[in-house]
Amino acid sequence: MHRLATPGLLLIICLALAAPVFAAKAAKPSGEQPIHVVSDRLEVDNKSQVATFIGKVKATQGDVVITSDRLMVYYDRDDKAAKPKKGKKPAGLMDQGGKVRKVVALGHVKVVQRDRVGVGQKATYWAGGRKILLEGRATVWRGKNVVSGEKITVFLDEDRSVVHGAPGRRVTVTIVPGSQR
Asked: What is the residue range of 69's domain?
């Protein structure tokens, strides 16, 4: 098992998909919990700086679970890691020598945290821009409340989100009075 050097990425993705859409107030995620990823295969290419988990991927951090067909982690090497000591190779992501730049989950994407669930065909998280895009008949539930569209973009630092419909399909929202928000 390898730990990915990303501060609360799974929690960030789940909270970002559900909370801003329904204007929920959530505590800031903690990057202290370990991330556990299980898949049929893992390919790490330190030269291209991509780690790819393939086949029935299940990533867990605390009470957050992401499942998908494929999960790609794009990373940059730290300055220290990029200039290795004489005779040593540069450290890669799995060697605690990289910083996550972007994470892409593909195929049957599902993000779950307690009563929050987000689904779509693709989810992309950009660490630098603190933005998440859920695509492909994207739907987010929180309790009985639901919002769906072709794409849902969440801007983490701005506490806002944008939901786009597709040609011939409009954005839909259902809010159940008295249900958990």
From this structure: 9-174
What's the half-sphere exposure (Cβ side, CA atoms, 13 Å) at 89? 6
Q: Which is more confidently placed, 178 or 141?
A: 141
2 domain residue, yes or no: no
49 contacts: CB under 8 Å, gap ≥ 6: 74, 75, 76, 77, 92, 93, 98, 101
Q: Is the separation of the CB atoms in 108 and 121 below 8 Å?
A: yes
Query: Among 158, 163, 175, which Cα is nearest to 138's?
Result: 163
**Is 15 among the domain residues?**
yes
For residue 40, give the CATH number of its domain: 2.60.450.10
- Per residue in 78-113, pLDDT tens? 655 445 556 655 555 555 556 788 889 999 999 887
Q: Between the CA atoms of 107, 113, 114 and 120, what dihedral angle is there, to the nearest 10 degrees?
A: -30
Residue 3 belongs to some domain of the structure: no
Q: How far is CA 81 from the centre of its chain?
A: 25
Residue 167: left (phi > 0), alpha (psi -120 to 50), or beta? beta
Is the residue at 152 inside a domain? yes
